[in-house]
Amino acid sequence: MANEKILVVDDEEDILELLRYSLAREGYRVYSTGTGEKAVSVAKELSPDLLVLDLMLPGMDGLEVTRILKSDPRIRSIPIVMLTAKGEEADIVAGLELGADDYVTKPFSPRVLAARVRAVLRRRRISEAGDVEVLRFDDLVIDPGRHQVFSAGGEVRLTLTEFGILLHLARRPGWVFTRSQIVDAVKGADYFVTDQSADVQVAGLRKKLGDAGSLIETVRGVGYRFREQQWPPRKN
User: Which is it for strands 102-105 and 80-84: parallel, antiparallel or unpaired?
Assistant: First the structure.
């Protein structure tokens, strides 16, 4: 069973209890708090392996917590799974653009949440294990080993999910992947796939890549592909 530290943040005690119980059953060491201010201080002190964060918090909301954590070099690599009662695209996009890795809408299934947590932590372990092949496409450089992306000479900050999608597409230029195939490859088959979840992630990825975002092409009615004429990558 897992032994990672997870910090859960929600201002509703019954939700906190459900989170603590369901995640503890999975073998995680669970810590909890009910405010955004406390979440920031605990995250800096504890350095958890993952944060489950409600967006609708009194005072400092979840988006502000995400903004603060992702701006701190010491803890910005902590994955964040957002909880939102709204389920509106604007809230989801805002959180993902700030650096959150995934989201679950309320009311939620504890089994689905646990699956999302497992998938995010698994991606983090795979990322940390490293892959030394650096991919180069004109001004875009993807370094899997260091989990870094550079576009036009500047570093692009991506979430684990965005990085996984980019790497998955870039390794097979010209191949067309459905939305379900993309999410399954990045998150695992236990992830509940919707067209919206894939589209939101790709839209955020393109925006962050700037001009290089055009390398990711939409195949209408199917999914996405990486532009074929950029392959093979240039050698050093």
Answer: parallel
Burial (0-12, 13-18, 19+ Cβ within 10 Å), 111: exposed
What domains can be seen in the chain, in order of their start residue? 5-128 (3.40.50.2300), 131-230 (1.10.10.10)
Under the phi-then-psi rule, with left for phi > 0, alpha for psi from -120 to 50, and beta for the rest, what region is 147?
A: left
Q: Kindly tell me the burial class for residue 23, based on how many C-beta atoms sit within 10 Å of its own C-beta (0-12, 13-18, 19 or more).
A: buried
pLDDT tens sequence across 17-31: 999 999 999 999 999
- In sequence order, what are the residues at sequence separation of 6 or more whose Cβ sits closer than 8 angstroms to the Cβ of residue 188? 118, 119, 122
User: In one letter, which amino acid is 94?
Assistant: A
75 CB-near residues (< 8 Å, 6+ apart): 43, 44, 47, 69
**Structure-token match 């088959």, residue found:** 189
Residue 174: CB atoms within 10 Å: 12
CA 34 from centre of chain = 23
Sign of CA pseudo-dihedral 225, 96, 71, 76 = negative
The low-confidence residues of the chain, meaning pLDDT below 70, are: 1-2, 86-89, 126-132, 187-195, 228-236
Write the single-letter amino acid at 194. T
CA terminus-to-terminus distance, the chain = 43
Residue whose token pair is 């500047």: 154
In a 3-state reduction of DSSP, which class is residue 102?
strand
Q: Which helix (H) or strand (E) holds 199?
A: helix 195-209
In angstroms, the CA 13 to CA 19 distance is: 10
